[in-house]
Amino acid sequence: MIQSNIDNISEKQWTELSKCNTANFFQSKVALHFFESVGTEVFTFALEKDKEIVVFLSGIIQKEKGVKAGLTSRAIIYGGPIISENAEEKNVLEVLAYTVSYLKKKAIYVEMRNLNDYGDYKEVFKKAGFEYVPHLNFHLDCEDEAVMRKRMSSSKLRQVKKSLKQGAEIKEAQDQKEIEAYYAILENLYKTKVKTPLPNLDYFIRMWKDKVAKFFLVIYKEEVLGGIVCPVLDNKVIYEWFVCGKDGAYKNIYPSILATWAAMDYAVKNDIPRFDFMGAGKPDQDYGVREFKSKFGGEQVEHGRFLNVTQPLLYKVGKTAVKILKSI
């Protein structure tokens, strides 16, 4: 039977889920409680067999406010579902079918943004109406600092050293004013370059206060020049969720590079074996961010995304609107 109340999942079952190869932070109890706490609509489906949760899937429904809501409502399953080794194909198919049935009137499309390898389940997803969409990412091995440095681009490593020598510092956020300063830089980045919706300031303040993620900031002359927001999964993986920097503000200070280095350095010092860059674009499209991320020495992987369009006409209209907004 499929259940939708995470309060019915025991601590032992959560622990077992975290040990699965497809476990990720965004399918954790911490992440779900955070999304609910900031008013995001959350959905959760778990299939139990012999007292074990063999398939777990959760996500959020995102939409813009007002008249745009109908054209922008989408169901995003960050990270992809957790699938136990004891799950049968029929179990996975049952949860996927239930998910689509539940969401078909709530969202224009359902998208799984995979952070792990689901290659063995492609056919199951296809049977459930999901199309595989190629999408790249980088996974960086952080187990050995010397090896990590060696794999990193010499120019990027040099820029890290220059920034630190010049007096730039990396530290964890200590007060709300620092979060506000970081957010101002991030908001400007999204308005001028990224051009996709960004959660409001309260979202980040709540994330910081509740210790949902690490906030590493780049400080120079007592000014916040950038930073990175990094959730951590059970000291197994650290994720680059949001990152920004006021590059070019000062000579020989490289905030964006230093912010990324902050997560890498934290991983090494805290025995976290993997740094997940959380996306590097589509393989058939030029993407400057992918070029930037590739310089840090990670392995390029293609775990892709799974897409199920529940309302084709609205999806087409919405997709066209997004392209227009990004081109402005």
TrEMBL record:
GO molecular function annotation: aminoacyltransferase activity
GO biological process, one term: regulation of cell shape
InterPro entries in UniProt: Acyl_CoA_acyltransferase (IPR016181), FEMABX (IPR003447), PG_Glycine_Bridge_Synth (IPR050644)
Keywords for this protein: Acyltransferase, Cell shape, Cell wall biogenesis/degradation, Peptidoglycan synthesis, Transferase
Pfam families assigned: FemAB
Keyword Cell membrane: no
Family of the protein in this entry: Belongs to the FemABX family.
Protein name as annotated: FemAB family protein
Organism: Aquimarina amphilecti
